[in-house]
Fold this sequence. Notes:
- The complex is a heterodimer.
- Helices cover about 30% and strands about 20% of the residues of chain A.
- By secondary structure, chain A is an alpha/beta fold.
- In chain A, helix 2 (about 40-50) crosses helix 5.
- The longest helix of chain A is centred in the first third of the chain and has 16 residues, at about 75-90.
- Chain A is globular.
- The relative contact order of chain A is 0.13.
- The model of chain A has no long low-confidence stretch (mean pLDDT about 95).
- Chain B has one domain: Aconitase, domain 4.
- Chain B has five helices and seven strands.
- The model of chain B is unreliable at about 145-154 (pLDDT under 50).
- Chain B is of the alpha/beta class.
- Iron/sulfur cluster binds near residues 101 and 364 of chain A.
Amino acid sequence: MPLTLAEKIIAKASGRDSVTPGEIVTCHVDLAMMHDSAGPRSAGKYLDELGVPVWDLDKLVVITDHYINSDDAEFNAIQTHAQGWVKDHNVKNFIKEQGICHIVLPESGHVKPGQFIVGGDSHSCTGGAFGTFMVGIGATEMAGVLATGEIWVRVPETVRIDVRGALRPGVSAKDIILKLCGEYGIMGFNYQALEYAGTAVDAMSVQERMTLANMAAELGAKAGYCLPDEKTRDQLDAWGATDIDIDTWRSDADAPYKKTITIDGDTLSPQVAAPSSPENAGPVEDHLGTKLDQAYLGACTGAKLDDLRMAAEILKGRKVPAGFKFMVAPSSIPMGEQARAEGILDIIEAAGGQVLPVGCGGCIGLGAARLEENAVGISSTNRNFVGRAGPKSSKLFLGSPYTVAASALKGEIADPREFLGEGA
Amino acid sequence: MKTIEGRAWAYGANIDTDALAPIGSYSGTGDLSVGAGQCLRDLDPNFAKSVVEGDVFVATDNMGIGSSREMAPMFLHTLGIRCVLAHSFARIFYRNCFNIGLPALVCAEAGQIKMGDVIKVDPASGKVTNETQGTTYHASRSQNTSWGSSKPAA
Ligand code: SF4
């Protein structure tokens, strides 16, 4: 029976030959990831109430990334508690303040194609970029996984997103996903699995694919994944993963997709999501000239090494207007270090950008990148709901790293293509 | 399960977890009622102040979209909400509701319920009675997976 990759992984995890969308099956979890917000203080607390140990310490990764870089007493209490919890439970894989969990997890060699992974965060679907089935769950659900290593799932229908042609200069994965948000809405693919494929996805770096997988959450999808290839293997290999199998974990030729949606990569323009939902996305042309108070490159979505490289292409040799707030928080420490080594952070600083510590920070309105009252910002993050990145009176636009960098240079929403290629 | 009866707090589509449980509204160190006081502060500051035990939360599409944070249903429950009725739910919120003991029921007619209507829900049979409007609806625990787009076809 032909299966999609999502179905294959669920079948393997549930010990069956095949599964059909709609069926409810119990899966063995290959890997569980939780962070300081939903982890020890929530899921961990429930586990302790049950009075049982973690089912398998080799398969649990705890990462602190949300409530860090602060002298706030409550934040520090959360950190102290998290550290105490991992110690008490003999957690082997504890990664402290190295960057955002969705980046740090694969970066530390834990992720490989074919795994069934759960993460205690809604953007856990990011791991799908590597040909896994990775799904975000709540803390009570995670408590069950911690206790038993199992979780029930309803097998999702798989929708194939076929991005044809080749993306133009200044257009990136973020524009594809914002285009989908604009067209189908934030519940457009509720409960479904998205398979991103096509020539434009094949041509993309693995880090760009992470952006597609990450924002499957903004389409309501349960999981979003890309089919693993040589690039996947090389990237995971560089991050220290072993036994990477890219041949088994692909969709069968006549797999039963619910439908296929095609996007024309050749004609896609940079997209911007207006306040206050990712689904308010449309072409950047609709917002050109909108005055901004700040621009932010950050989060699990938009400050990976490749995102910083894209921004640097635009920023090189240019400057943001005097007094304009432009901030960059690399997605992880290794990526930030690599960006420093490549001269990218120097380009950003020379352009007037301020490099902030790694962590979720501005994405959830914490730290220096928090929007002020009535401020208007643009960021490379994934959500712009009211009250997320600043007070109710603030407004946030979402765009690609290219678009955020171009907008920073003008102090208003700008088309990055103006700074690239012939037009530059 | 016994019948739930209370006033409806009726809102629209896409009530997100940043609205339900604003960042910084909870420390995770104990007292949920402190954070719960911030629930929906940006959408309806009256909600957290006035909701009472037994009330019913009503929304249309995509209730609970956003983060996995369990405080979203926990705050509703802490404030006294005993049932959530909506056209459809975001998946993590939906599972979180059941896990913390808050029935989340799919009700295609939820949009007809007005703020303050007196609502009776029998979670076992799925019968919803709107005492104020004198109407009945049906609610179910099973979610349709194929609503398609929340936006009109482009
Ligand atoms: S950067 Fe933002 S979206 Fe990503 S894990 Fe942190 S809070 Fe969530």
